Amino acid sequence: MVIDYKHVAFSFEYQKRKKRLKKLKIIAMVVVFLLAVFLFQYFQQDKKIKKIQDLLLNDQQAEAAELFKTLKNSILHSQTIKELNALINLFNGDVKNAHLILNSLEKPKTSISARSFLNHFAEQSKYDELKIYTDYLINKQESVHFYKALYLTAFFKYGESEKQLGRISSGQRKSLTRAIDLISDLNSKLKSGKVDYIFDKNGKPLAHYDLKARKTVSVTPGMHFDEFTPRFEKGIRTYTLSLDLNIQNKIDRVFKRYRGSMILFKIEDSGILAAFSKSRQPMKSNTVFTAEFEPGSIIKTLTLFAFYLNPKKNLFPFECRRAIRLSNQNFPDRIAHGIIENQQYALVVSCNIAFARMGIAVGFKSLSRVLDSFFFNSKGFRDQFFTFKTGSYNLNISGDYQLANLAVGLNDITSTTFHSGLIALIIAQNGSINRPYLIKNKKNILNLGFYNHQPEIVSVFDNNPIFFRISQAMAEVVENRLGTGRHSKVQFVKTAIKTGTAGQKKQGLNSIIIGFFPAAKPEYAFAFILEGAGKAELNGAYLLKEFLGLFYEQP
Length: 555
Fold this sequence. Notes:
The protein is an alpha+beta fold.
């Protein structure tokens, strides 16, 4: 049998080709697989880069930094990752390191959304960050002259700013007309040497910056704004406060003959409507927020609160004979009040003996619990860069005599005008208030807001019926013919107050009054101290009466 190979397509060469094709297919498959892996990783990296940018633009710096750690460097993303690292540094305040990273970058384009970051820095008044990033983009031949003009104006370089505005292309100018006009207008004000930048709630200027003197000049009686100056010098921004300049001027009028301070809260949101300081010993700070003084009988409102929480029998009625013996010492009152029927009447006539007895009856532990709840011995309150101090008391009270003095606000306790007004505010609101504030909003040089005050509830014995009982007693301080606040009474509005007289006779006694009005449905809470003015039931009451007349514009 003979095998015929004539029609069989078979050869050793064919087998070699077949093997080569198989190898090529395998190589192609490997290449395709590697390319797929590369593209997958590329798009995963790209997705992460976009996510990190979104986190930064939403002020989630910590989350952005954590996600950045998972990025793996690659040839295609290397410049983008470096630029992103610089941006993370900028957002974290490490301006120096960000500047170094950006300076080390090459000029090729990256996938960073540069305009979004420029807009963010501009809107948030982050002018140092805006400068660094804008200068980096200009070195890359990016057309960002508008942003350079913006930060130059923010740093008071109005001449250089105008040059940059002139370099903006006609196409960009059309979309930026309003913003360019705002910058040009601000440049004109800078050229004049004066820029209004702090305003009251109604838009009236409270203070301006003097470029020549390099300081903030207040046009608001009884308040300076030195705390704002270093912030303004880091880049122009404007502030709207909760203050009402009209009310501030009225307080200035009633304080013409006096030294001291006064605060007025709008109860609705605990905004500070007025903060007036005119101390006998001028201080750099606004003394209404910082100066501590012996509060006297205004503390009796809190002693009464402690007594209501821990009622004791057989204390009332009793006869006040002007003094009692405590710890082998005479504990005095200003007059013999006679029969004190109950604790409310004790507040109306401000009987020291009655409150000494109440303080001793409830004990130091119970009284201190109430004082602590009303923010004594606390860190006080903060609003942005403002600190509102609260008072303090001696934690080492020993003996009935010391405790009696604490119960009537003498010797071992201090308060500030802000704190005293806060006590009135808490009572008026039945223990639940918004956190007090002064700064309402902040805006950048394009008049865009980047901060607005957000209310925050603070509760003190929330909705306890005791507050209503104390409010009623404070109203009687004015309405009762024997009340210590009777001389402040006016016909057009009912008030609820507590008077206090403290200090040293040699220097002149201080008049202190806290309260709120209208008494039935409070809208405003206040406190003031008149330094060396004498008894609160006289000069203090007369000043309150005059203020109420001006406040309600009554003849």
